[in-house]
Amino acid sequence: MSISYDPKRKTLTLATKNTTYQMGVGPVGHLLHLYYGRRAEGSFGHLYPPHDCGFSPNPYELRDERGWSPDTMPQEYSGSDTGDFRLPCLEIAAEDGVRGADLRYVRHEIRPGKYGLPGLPASFDREGEAETLAVTLSDPAAGVEVELLYGVFAARDVITRAARIVNVSTRAVRLEKAASMCLDIPFGTWDLLHFHGRHTMERQPERTCLSHGVQSVGSRRGASSHQHDPFVILCGRDAAEDAGECYGLMSVYSGSFETDVELDQMNALRAVAGIRHDGFSWTLEPGEAFFTPEVILSFTDGGFTALSHTYHRFLRRNICRSPWTERPRPILLNSWEAAYFDFDADKLLSIARGAKALGAELFVLDDGWFGVRNSDSSGLGDWFANEKKLPGGLAPLIREMGRLGLRFGLWVEPEMVSEDSELYRAHPDWALTVPGRKPVLGREQLVLDLSRPEVADWLYDTIAGLLTDYDISYIKWDMNRSLTDLYSRGLPPDRQGEVGHRYMLGLYGVLERLTASFPHVLFEGCAGGGGRFDAGMLAYFPQIWCSDNTDPIARLAIQHGTSFGYPMSAVSAHVSASPNHQTGRTTPLGTRGLAAMGGGFGYELDPGALTPEEAEEIRRQIARCREYGDIVLTGDLYRLTVPGKGPFTAWQTVSEDGARSILCAVVTEPAGNPLPMHVRLKGLDPAGRYAVTDLDVFGSRETGAWLPEEEYTGAALMYGGVTLPSLKGDYPSAALYLERRD
Ligand code: GLA
Prior knowledge:
- This protein is of the alpha+beta class.
- It has twelve helices and 38 strands.
- Alpha-D-galactopyranose binds at residues 336, 366-367, 376, 411, 478, 480, 526, 528-529, 545, 548.
């Protein structure tokens, strides 16, 4: 049993393989957070002796006990305006004017299996591996009950949290904030590691010492955003890759979110995560319930690598539902950087012939194939082929692709509408705009109001129609602007605060139906690259275009940051032409091939422009991807260096059984008199004997033979390491393949 109740002490304990999480019912019913950390039996109430901290008030029932205040005790789900002045989870305004929330324990229930969240993506239980704890708290004055939901995945060291908020009164209640969870960490000194960025430079790690006050990570953009990722790590000040205490908090949500962290007067930490509360409100009529999105929690004292591995495995097994998740993906060629908007059927077929000759299996037709779409100013919404470019529509083109032996994939951006489109002319009211105000434009386009069921239905029917009428095996689902003008003609004035979240529910509903109806289709998520790279999207899409930046050196940094929370199986990465279209940098093709070894591997260039040597190198890359791709897809990733710190970046993937591994190193700062590159390998079997093959060296090698032996023990490779030769030139790289000899 991973969930237990001690009636004497009134404690509820969640146990996973390596962690313990404990809560207890306080003297007047507050649900207190007693402990989350390394596995330890026993009770933890003794950690919180009475302490009278001036100006921290007392519940009425405890007016004689000034040592007890909700303001100083760690809470499981903080109320508001009722004595706890730290970050609240719940803010309400009832129709009769009652505000605030004073939540007290009523009951709890332990259920087999994992709870679900209607309308929202959430983790799922595969083989009876999870249990659910539901704890009901209530505030009779506010007329609400809050059911706190805990999913315990004992073997995975994961605890998920969400809340169900019910209006149990006879009048309406407006939620002004409804967080998913609160995690109080009463003791210790903590840093916040979060992942910020911008378009084409997503998920750059930043580690900050927490100081008193609130640090907020989040998005107001209607998408999880390029600017902040909904995954953060709270780590001990001495935490590093291989050691140290780390808590991970990952929101399973793709819209505006907030993860706020507060260091309070007692030097205690509180993290509150969920839907962004400014701009949000939600009215519950009597009897109605609201479900918050889920947050995935994990703790380790083994450092960032151990935490990352927990999330990688959990996302692959318990979040991603696509049958493609751990299956080798077709190697593709995408038309975007090869042709942009400038193509016709002949040009596409010539690119496709070249792709086939290189060994690609799938041709992806990117933007520009539909409506009147010769630039990004028009056509969104008109999801039928542009017959000027594609005479006879998509069918003859797909037929020709089939004759070439290529599967066919299509780009769509279905959440959007251009003012210059048939769809907008027919339904101007379907776009999110505020009456009387010119809407804000992004890439000259507007956003469809997916909070309206009829718009969401149209969207489902349109994409389902394409997938039914044509032999399409892959969809790249793009989204190229942030949400503004959140006003829906489908909702009354007093419910406009619901539009942002209802948009997400509309979108999730469409994705749920599409992925269920067309399970064979490989869906790739995209939002101008990685602007919506989150666990919510991964519930539907097994892979996401990680960034519009295809420069391999920049990509190493982006993929490094991404890897803290997300597995390589989720990362779509392509080899593009050099000089790179985003940065102008020139890099060798071999280095581009190594940097693009993600779950979704492919090319984004015109094969007609390649030299015979380059074409040969690409054939080798594709063969290598077929042979070793499974290690990247299902193995463990080790970050051996930090991109930008030091002259080279090295990383290693190891199959889950430790038998096969690839080491990659890229010189990111070519220097005079370059030194040999030394790294210690990780994740190998110390006693195993590994055959080491020099997979590839791209760039001139300064030294001669450098692997005198053919076989090394795992211990020698991990504790002694490997010294790669010094390499000269523009961003050279090297890769080794290791295989255990049984
Ligand atoms: C976005 C995507 C790109 C490409 C373009 C097409 O920017 O991230 O990969 O599909 O749109 O307009």
